[in-house]
Design a protein that fits this description.
homodimer, 197 residues, Tetracycline Repressor, domain 2, 0% strand, elongated, DNA-binding
DNA sequence: GCAAAGTTAGTTATCGTTTACTAACGCTGC
DNA sequence: GCAGCGTTAGTAAACGATAACTAACTTTGC
């Protein structure tokens, strides 16, 4: 989307960390300014209002994710399963590097009071599901995945399983190894889905 | 837990519906009182404070769910798969009957600002996972389910898939048929998990 | 020397909650 | 059979705290 200034990125990351650590209810301009060691009006030098910070941060993380996944998928893989592993590996590594992002990306409900914000979150979810559905269709066409279930149902199973793995990691206080645990779940799904087990 | 008065239940259901429709950010005493056609202080005749309303509603729905699922599982079934279908059938029917409850039961993040509230939501999630893990262990022991994957991984897959099915229904504005769509996903998982396909 | 980025000191609106009061009801005991 | 009394559930008005935001001034770096 837009190119953000350094200060804007600082503000958006501080907002994300606050939402992650203490919930959106505590995301006030006062708290956010204090987190950054700034006065409240200083924030308004960089964003028009509080909502613009939230919309900005969703656009910021969404753009990063779209670009990164496009990158991952532009490579060539020996099999559909291999590509799917690469996609989730990239995603789970990104979450591990910036755990607080998860609290904002997986947050259909906390932005429910604003159409634009909740639409953006739904949009991010659709991007991931799109990648998975593509992968499943290709894998089924190649005879690598079982055709017992429809791509739609399989997408729900794959994405749902991975989302819950992430949620469990979050509930554990990010103490678990998300890349490893997520890989175990994905391998499990692939094992059941594969035609040559 | 406690037996709630009729008025308390009215208040808790109004709060749940508001969270569902407009997000927790708009759950103020003023809005809630207006929804009920009452004055603000009237609410304090029935709950000590705003937090008690939220804690009360989580306890209220959690108790209903625990009792209902215990009931479902007290019956006897021809197979583990049949029992699992009955558990989720009951759960999805309950969600369909009271769609707003989902927004509050699936809300690890919106209660993040309060330990007691988020612990209660985590607790509710554990109850469901416990039922599923039990079922999977029994099904594996009976040779009905594949032993290729651990009960923990299979639980993540089953519960994760069903949660995403519910979330999709919610995002669709509850327009879809949750009982039917959820059943499709569960049947899909069971098909892959079953030893005699 | 000036634009960008910060400050102090306010604004108005709304938050959760309390105070003080009342109408309606059910139980006593004579 | 009803006066006296306590309880329940409501109200209007106001509380202090805090929300998002702004006007006006100062500092800073090229």
């Amino acid at each position: 989307m837009q190119p953000f200034t350094e200060r804007q990125i600082e503000i958006m990351e501080a907002a994300t960390q606050r939402i992650d650590a203490h919930g959106i209810q505590t995301l006030t301009i006062k708290n956010l300014a204090a987190d950054l060691g700034l006065s409240e009006p200083a924030l308004y030098r960089h964003f028009e209002n509080k909502n613009a910070i939230l919309l900005g941060l969703l656009n910021y993380f969404s753009a990063e994710m779209v670009a990164r996944l496009a990158d991952v998928r532009s490579l060539s893989y020996g099999s559909s399963a291999e590509e799917l592993r690469a996609v989730f590996d990239s995603q789970l590594r990104a979450f591990t590097a910036k755990p607080s992002v998860v609290s904002v990306i997986f947050a259909e409900n906390i932005f429910h009071y604003d159409k634009r914000l909740s639409a953006k979150v739904a949009d991010i979810m659709d991007v991931m599901q799109g990648h998975v559905t593509d992968n499943i269709k290709t894998g089924q066409a190649a005879g690598e995945y079982s055709k017992l279930l429809s791509p739609a149902t399989l997408t729900t199973i794959v994405v749902g399983s991975m989302r819950l793995a992430v949620l469990k990691w979050k509930v554990s206080g990010n103490r678990a190894n998300l890349v490893k645990d997520g890989r175990t779940v994905l391998d499990g799904v692939l094992k059941m889905l594969s035609t040559n087990n």
